[in-house]
Amino acid sequence: GCHPSRWIYELIHNNFTVCDLFQRARNANLDSHYNWEHPHQLVINGNQSFSTASSKVLSAICLDCHFHFMFRVEWEREQEDLSCHHSQSQWPLGDTQFPWHHLAWACSEDEKRITQERSKYYPLLAREFFVCTAAPCTVQITLEVSEPRMPSSWVKLLLDHETILQQLKAARENEPARYETATDDWAYQAPSNLNTYLKNLLEATPDSARSISKRNKRFCVLFGPRCFHIFRELEFKEVVDMQDGVDEGSFTPTAPPPADGPSKSTEVNTYRAYLEDVRSEVQNLIFKSGNTAESPTFCIAALHNHLGCAEVPRVSENALVNLERYKLMGVLPTQSKEIVVNAYKRQWDLLPSRRRDLVEALMAIANDSNDDLLSDYAITQSSVFESQLQRHSGDDDDGLVAQALEYFSLSPPNTHSADAILQAFREKVARDPFDASTARSMLLLIARSSKDDSYQMKLVLEADPKMTLETCKVVLRLKTLDGPWEDMVRATKELLNNAPSSEAKATYLDALDSIAEHTASPSLKQAVLELRNEFNLGISESDGTTSGDARATNLNLPLGLHNIGNTCYLNSLLQYLFTVKPIRDIVLNYDSFRLGLDDESIRERRLGGNKMQMDRGEAVEMATLFKTLRTSDRTATRPSQRLANAVLLSTHTLLSSPKQPSETPTAPNPPPLPARPSPAPPTNSQDDVNMVNVSVQAVSDSLETQSSSSTQTLVNQDDARSDHSYEKVETVIEEEASQPFLAATGGSGDDVSMVEAPLDDKKPAVDMDLDESKGTPVSAGQENPDIDMTDVEKPPETVDQKVLNALEHQKRSSGTDQQDVEEVMGSILNRLQAAIRPTSVDSETGIQFEKIMETFFVTTVNYTKKFDEQEYQHEISFDRSITAFPATEGPCSLYDALGRNFDQQILEDSKLSRYTAIKTLPPVLHILIQRSQSMGNKNGNPVVIPETLYLDRYMDAPHDSPTFRQRVQDWITAERIGDLKSQLSKVVANPRYMTFLQTYGSGDGTAEETTNEPAVGAEEPSKQQENWDFDGPVEDDFLLVSPATMRAAAVGQPVARLEDIQKTHATVLEMMEKELRQRQEALDNSLNSQKQIAYRLHAVICHRGHLMSGHYWVWIHDFEANVWRWYNDADVKENKDTAEVLRTLSTSGEPYYLCYVRDEDKEQYVSIPKREIPK
């Protein structure tokens, strides 16, 4: 349900949250001249609105698309005092207070009934019923939507200005004297004339209806034979009177019966209502053309009044309006706390299965509103809810149970019955058979969280690889299990032929095998063995081992990697890293790079300048895998469990709890936040004092904890999830002309942050030996991070031996450690760094460099300047990737996405300008497309990915250089281009702003002199002009044919020509479009001249799903063979069409992590190893 103002907003924007009205309309075949996919502008329609003691009826029509909307608000008169009313609004809102309606969709009218009622007079499309869900309120709303009364062919005829001009030209040639005073303005007056005909008809009595002569000058030109069918459809009686081959006949209307509805309103589905509806549509054409000084009577205010609510100004411009929390709560941004709480109480009763979501939405809306009272209420509601969770929901401190439920499309918290969860599990496996292993893991996770033994047992039994008969039936889509076994085999074989992957095929065969086990059928068992052989499948889900992967028929195709428990992201990264030569060199020649195994050597190792902890396990396991990838003759292999553990579990975790059977996973952090930190006003430097402010911010931390520590080092990392990909340092206060050196700061992550600092022997800028016990946040379930890793009292055992020994016994909770790619990439690279010795050490800073840092790490500079200062202050950051931000709406180029990170930003509130530049680039550049948004939403807008990326425009340059001055000009030009595009989109969408200019530009001219003509018949002498009357203020520009009686001619000034105003409108648009073209051309020329630093696209890691769950795969380009390969776990496919691959990647929101390589060095740094099968 929703608040009435939300209901009106969703109606106007064709996007009901629950009701499927507009989805049905999109699938319908509608005859409408206009597209209806736009915000509707509703105006009063005819004489069909009225009020009674127990109802209010509002008839409206959309000004743009001409669809009709009928609103009927009804209530029980006897219960009117119990209806919702805003007078009950007071804070705090009690449970018996109902200030506003809360509308929920009840049902739709039966399609058969709709068909029966549909007619020419009332072409009904849909009838929807809504009710107020407040307990005592009896209000219900009936919404009826009907199609335009005028077919699109009518509209085309009325607006066919060219044809009317041609008819006028022909009339002038045939009868020049008669059409001597006719002007080209006639071409635009067909709607006005038709409006007048209809007005006269609606006001006429049966005795006063006026006929229209077919020989009438205007009628001949504006309508003529091509429009006769319009008047026939309007039920005018046609008279044909042929005189010398010319029809001298007429059209005579039949006056409709007078309105006899409530309050003298017009009843719908009558001839009078039909005429009113047509006239309203004609008037909309006149309003849209701007050919009237009058404005339409909009009815949105009346509709809000009928529903007892107030309109929220400019709500459609609010970026929050379509966020899920506002849809779920059924309110609009900026509404009062009373409205929010009223909606929350109604939704609480309506949606018991989504109460956790409602509490979270309430908290978020309170945060948006900045209302302390609402925040206090939300916090109280959250506390109460947590204390009342049902017993089988168990403990879910890390949110994993909630993720598992969402995986099965169930809403947390776990208030679901065991049967409901089992049904969702079966449907998931049937829908995604390739993900059966993950589904079982999720089911076990839910089972383990329960405190109900019976509940837990039901789920555990279902999670066994040997499926239950009911699950087999659902997975194999069998109607019955009582039929012949041959039918089951045929059904399974059909599924196998259409299965998308080997994992899916294995699931189908496991299901068939389970039926064979349950039914003790030797025939079925034999059939399973034959099918496994036929489809080259030898993977058994029950033990996770490979009994025989199929031999590869194409050894030029790289080896795939089986998913061993939701490790698709790890598989994608391993496939990519296998193609990076420095990584391959380190892993396969580890003895040449490895760090000494004694604890003393490890203690001296630094990651950059930070303390770290040696971890050889990953390097050893990767070496084993890489050798298999080069020498196997199979289609796919399995990465070892030890490798997955080495990457996803920290050394500290392995060493501190070697006897634990499994590690309790924690919910993954969201992807890293923007690389650019939020600016703080810089501190003014003092004369003779060069201050350095240093604080480390682990941007990948959660918002709640990101500032809680500034002294963490790698040894404090409790698991791989704590990998902090981005570290920043606060502004360095110094003159740009000074010569600084680089000082590494201790950080809470694995990367290196550097800050320019002065040489000061007495007081170092940063204490390099940071106290590991300070400032380390410890979350629930974590071990104490302050552990001495070396036990001197025990026999000397290297950390390497300890880690490898622990990996033999450590297990992960498969299926729950879905992690962000950037985090896992950081984990892999950091652990390899931790296992190799440095190749060089900066003598001044102590920063240790090795092959990985030289290959991947990029140096950026963040510049900040106050409005009233001339010099920029800056900070330097050392990161393993840069960030690109997709557009908030629609697609954008990768350059635009990177521009949101690097281009200048003006912060009016802080009176700052800032931008970011790249100081040094690595040979291999990683770009993270930041798709995470607030409240855990994913930005799925496409980013157009170029094959060659030129980075000149982002490189650092001196502020007094021509390069920087041109960059500033480019920023200004780009901003102006954005403004022009925004203005043009508004002008094109709403050209009626020119109405004011047109109305006052046309003067006070009166219509031309005209004469009356007989209803049927004879032409008057040409010197006598036809007389046209005006009908009042609304129709001052409308022309009508007067009755046959003669009137005096009115003489006045001619009306200004309409096309002059249209030309003015066109000129304004042309000027804007011309400027846009010129500025775009200037910007393109500038950027096209900056193409010296070229990087080629090498790999793209993609993700489909939500932020907290989904599936990963990777595209990798083989430059030598000029082919793209798609690695999706065990499946590997090729595509030689680069354009097709880039088109695919650039038209969806799936690309997530881009890997570019310096074009001139690509052969040196990346390659796809060919298989070397031992003979």
Automatic annotation (TrEMBL):
Residues 700-714 have a biased composition (Low complexity). The keyword Mitochondrion does not apply. SUPFAM superfamilies: Cysteine proteinases. One of its GO terms (molecular function) is cysteine-type deubiquitinase activity. Residues 718-727 have a biased composition (Basic and acidic residues). It catalyses: Thiol-dependent hydrolysis of ester, thioester, amide, peptide and isopeptide bonds formed by the C-terminal Gly of ubiquitin (a 76-residue protein attached to proteins as an intracellular targeting signal). PROSITE patterns: USP_1, USP_2, USP_3. Residues 667-682 have a biased composition (Pro residues). Its EC number is 3.4.19.12. Residues 247-266, 655-688, 700-727, 768-793, 1000-1028 are annotated as: Disordered. Keywords: Hydrolase, Protease, Thiol protease, Ubl conjugation pathway. Pfam families: RPT, UCH. It is an enzyme of class 3 (hydrolase). GO terms for biological process: proteasome-mediated ubiquitin-dependent protein catabolic process; protein deubiquitination; regulation of proteasomal protein catabolic process. InterPro entries: Papain-like_cys_pep_sf, Peptidase_C19_UCH, UBP14-like, UCH_repeat_domain, USP, USP_CS. It comes from the Eukaryota. Residues 559-1159 form the USP domain. This is ubiquitinyl hydrolase 1.
